Amino acid sequence: METKISTEDVSAPGDPILETGTESPRLEGELPLREKHITSNEEPFECELGRSRYFQSSETQGTAVPIIEIIDVKKSYTLGNMEVPVLHDINLEVREGEFLAIMGPSGSGKSTLMNLIGFLDRPTEGRIIIKGLDINKLSDKEVARLRGLEIGFVFQTFNLIPRLTALENVELPTYANSRSGVDSRERAKELLKLVGLEDRMRHKPGELSGGQSQRVAIARALINDPAILLADEPTGNLDSKTGCEILNIFKRLNEDGRTIVIITHDPEIAGYADRIVMVKDGIIQNSTE
Ligand SMILES: Nc1ncnc2c1ncn2[C@@H]1O[C@H](COP(=O)(O)OP(=O)(O)OP(=O)(O)O)[C@@H](O)[C@H]1O
Ligand SMILES: [Mg+2]
To answer: Going by CA atoms, what residue is nearest to atom 9 of ligand 1?
Structure first.
């Protein structure tokens, strides 16, 4: 018998909340996963992926429209009666189809920035525009819908619900937001196949390895076919070989046209991005293509 999913599960941290959408997702021809076969754990593991094809063509270079715009953003937290500034005057534009890496020391404000981009938090000052929609001009309900349909989140600690199966975890966000005309159970199965977990659908998180758990989390992030995938240190809890496999999935998703923003401490992982942005003390220090 399958576990009943409660509203408590639906409003778990990091899961999108609310509303039913109307757009149809692109299901046809979803990314062809070409899993790399590892013959031995002793063999040195190398990522074989090159840079995203998206910006290689001189025709497309520089012409892509911004999908994320961060304009003069500041973020402070209030601790007691003290205001603690965390982000100062952040300006950043992410183009459609771009693979962006955010790096910087611990405590520099990377996750705070990511949470703002993903509408998990609101800026103290400034504007955040996603797909042309200004968060300041949207109601909470509209923000929740935009977040639920257009933004997929992947976290370092996977954030799966322990008592639900892999399949139920992937399907979970659709209880709050979904696109019409989609059989979410079938799509969840397809996504689990896509990330190589067709034989683990009925397993619970406690019965999965770290790499498998992160694959489930990626499938969950894709359930509503979001335009943007945000990942906060998605390989931080994984060994380097498994981390590379996860990175390969992100690369293929990016080649499939999805915009990816990834926070990482690993320069090798950041090296696969189209652009690296360095955050230090709440300021964007530099940006390298
Ligand atoms: N809810 C909060 N209330 C108060 N201060 C916070 C809150 N969240 C984050 N901070 C502070 O904001 C600063 C930036 O935190 P953030 O989590 O964005 O850093 P980070 O760059 O992601 O670090 P790490 O690499 O360790 O994950 C830290 O000094 C942190 O203490
Ligand atoms: Mg962080």
So the answer is: 112
